[in-house]
Amino acid sequence: MLDFRLYMAQRLTALIMAPLVLGHIAVMIYAIQGGLSSAEILGRTQGSLFWLLFYGLFVLAVSIHAAIGIRVIVHEWAGLKGAALSALTWATGLGLLAMGARAVWAVTAA
């Protein structure tokens, strides 16, 4: 049952990430073609609730998606099981979430 829930969680996070990736790429193309500097980009993102929520959701989805993917890879390649595998999954997910949240905060709120 856990495997099915993880499978579904990974698929759901992929559905969330797909439009966010496309949105991120579109914004990057716009910024590059517009010749925006880093300072100009930060001027537009800092203090923006929209970008905080956009990239916050992106980071949350990526953290869950990647942690589950790494769990599957480590289980298949290294044969890790049980509590050690769960600990690795949680550590990966929380680590990615912490790093991503810090980056989102720096770009949108600092």
UniProtKB/TrEMBL annotation:
GO terms for cellular component: membrane. Its cofactor is heme. Keywords: Heme, Iron, Membrane, Metal-binding, Transmembrane, Transmembrane helix. GO terms for molecular function: metal ion binding. InterPro entries: SQR/QFR_C/D (IPR034804), SuccDH_FuR_B_TM-su (IPR000701). It is found in: Membrane. The chain crosses the membrane at residues 12-32, 52-73, 85-105. Membrane-anchoring subunit of succinate dehydrogenase (SDH). This is Succinate dehydrogenase/Fumarate reductase transmembrane subunit. It comes from Roseovarius halotolerans. The lineage of its organism: Bacteria, Pseudomonadati, Pseudomonadota, Alphaproteobacteria, Rhodobacterales.
